[in-house]
Amino acid sequence: MTLIVEATHRLGAFTLDAGFTAEGGVTALFGRSGSGKTSLIRMIAGLSKPDRGRLVIDGDVLVATDDHVFVPKHRRRFGYVFQEARLFPHLSVRQNLNYGSWFASRHEPKSAKAGEFDRVVQLLGIDHLLDRRPSHLSGGEKQRVAIGRALLSSPRLLLMDEPLAALDEERKAEILPYLERLRDETETPIVYVSHSVQEVARLADRVVMMRDGKVAAIGTPAEVLSGASFLAGDRAGDRVSDRRDAGAVLSGVIETIDRAHRLITVRLSSSAIILPNAQGEQGQTVRLHIPERDVMVATQRPEGLSALNIIGGRVAALEPDGEGMVRVRIACGSDMILARITALSVERLALQIDRPVFAVIKTVALER
Amino acid sequence: MGLDWLALSDDEWVAIRLSLWVSTVAMFVSLPFGIFVAYLLARGKFWGKSILNGLVHMPLILPPVVTGFLLLVLFGRRGVIGAFLSEYLGIVLSFRWTGAALACGVMGFPLMVRSIRLSIESVDRKLEEAAGTLGASPVFVFATVTLPLILPGIIAGMILCFAKAMGEFGATITFVSNIPGETQTLSAAIYTFTQVPGGDVGAMRLTLVAIVISFVALLASEFLAYLVGRKVHVE
């Protein structure tokens, strides 16, 4: 799959001027509210029309304003998951799920559809809800049904616009594992809009970072979320909020699951890290995001400390921000952990490149 | 005196049946137009929308006699539309039960449109947007999402139109007169009774019938709204 998006649109004082290319997998449109990411995904879906723009998927031109091409939303075959579930209240869950397949049937043989229905229902864990009405579902269940409904319309691209933003933390934790399975088990490419570093770090294969209607950076989650562009805000207030979430994105394999303590151990390149109450199966690959402000640096292995994660490494870089803070890049095997500490601490510990150090991370800070 | 006075005469039965028939026809024939106009008023953006709105509501404000007279001018044998209808389609409205149905329909139309329009305006357009992204064309979106969601409003509008038609008197009698067996509806029959000496008993009989019919219509609408309401739980 190749998706080419280019859009220019003016809305009052706000100007959207953005473009990106996406291959398969999960492409995250990431940025804070007002950065234009929702406007952009709505244009991809055909819910709004850009002043000027182009949208091409696998050579199929859906929008080309210069040539007056605009394929309406119902002929694009893009699934869309909204922030609110938007289930049809007059239909049962089963009918909601089948809604899109009435129209998709032209593209697919019937036998494939029955199997697909069971597979999606299994994947999202909604088999016990099929005969209920949407009004009798919890927020998390509604959103899972909405995801299933979009998937069952046999889309060639799945668009998700902050699908977790309207849910509380518990519900988010309930749905995120399903989204990970969705990414790993279906071939449908996904464009995922989010302002949450956690979600992007866990789900995205590629991140398109947006700021003020423009694309600020494109790259892997590790590159974008720990890179300089993530910090380079143009307003002071923004920079603070960005910094709170900056951090390393690592991937590893679940090694052991300690059900008694509700902890899992994830094997990284040279070390292991312990996470709290996360769902998962042994051997599953997971991504984790370690916010740099939650990492402490020690020059000796600390003892008598409650923090479970004490990871040895070497200082790879010291990046002072000129405002009294320093970002320390610590190489632990092939993984890079980031820590944000004061310049005073750097002086006291006499940190310098290549010095062996320990990164200390509270397990509680890694609650997913 | 026993309960014999409650027995309805043949002429009275005819008037009751005619009234029910005329009101039912008026209700069903207005329905598609009612939905169309309500949709235009709720969603349309066009020049002259307030003029259309005013026109639809005219029968509600004008004296019924005026509406009846206007119908006579337009739909009478020599009226602009009436002449066309009888010449090319063979439909004669003046002094026929069809004319009574037209008068009743016109009088009930604003009530029907109002009710349906309000329910269309209360439909969450985000649901229609979602249906579009699932591959439904605008026509399908209307048929599978909008229409089921406005069903309570449609039912309410139909009942209101029916009730108005049952009670309609002024416009009907002006347009199609008061011919027993053809245009003499329940209201007209009651009126006729009150114009002759000793007609009070007949008038009372028909009044009781009118009360029963109105009450049954009301109960039916409540019941239908309950059935639909059980299905349509707005989130």
Weakly predicted, low-confidence segments of chain A? 232-241
What is the rounded distance between the termini of chain B?
59 Å
CATH superfamily of chain B: MetI-like
Described by strand count, sense and barrel closure, the largest sheet of chain B is: none
Name given to the CATH architecture of chain B: Orthogonal Bundle
Oligomeric nature of the chains: heterodimer
Fraction of helical residues of chain A: 25-40%
The domain tally of chain A reads 2
Helicity level of chain B: over 70%
What is the tally of helical segments of chain A? Answer: 10
Strand content of chain B: under 5%
Mean pLDDT of chain B: 89
How are helices and strands ordered from N to C of chain A? Answer: EEEHEEEEHHHEHEHEEHHHEEEEEEEEHE
Which chain pair shows the most residues in contact?
A: A-B, 30 and 24 residues
Distance between the termini of chain A: 31 Å
The helix/strand series of chain B, from N terminus to C terminus, equals HHHHHHHHHH
Structural class of chain A: alpha+beta
Task: Report on the architecture of this protein.
The complex is a heterodimer of chains A (368) and B (235). Chain A is α+β, with helices and mostly antiparallel strands and 368 residues long. Chain A folds into 2 domains: 3-245, P-loop containing nucleotide triphosphate hydrolases (Rossmann fold); 247-366, RNA polymerase II/Efflux pump adaptor protein, barrel-sandwich hybrid domain (OB fold (Dihydrolipoamide Acetyltransferase, E2P)), CATH 2.40.50. Helices cover 27% and strands 35% of the residues of chain A. Chain A has 10 helices and 20 strands. Chain A has helices at residues 37-45, 93-104, 110-124, 139-151, 169-185, 197-203, 221-226, 228-231, 236-245, 343-349; strands spanning 3-11, 14-22, 26-30, 52-57, 60-64, 69-70, 78-81, 157-161, 190-194, 206-211, 214-219, 247-258, 263-267, 272-276, 285-291, 295-298, 309-320, 325-332, 335-342, 356-361. In chain A, the strands form 4 sheets. In chain A, strands 7-8-9-3-10-11 form a 6-stranded mixed β-sheet, sandwiched between helices. In chain A, strand 5 (60-64) and strand 6 (69-70) form a beta hairpin. Mean pLDDT of chain A is 85; it is low at 232-241. Chain B is an all-alpha fold. Chain B has a single domain, classed as MetI-like (MetI-like fold, Orthogonal Bundle). Chain B contains 10 helices and no strands. In chain B, helix 5 packs across helix 7 (138-167). Chain B is globular and about 70 Å long. The mean pLDDT of chain B is 89. At the A-B interface, strand 7 and helix 2 of A face helix 6 and helix 7 of B.
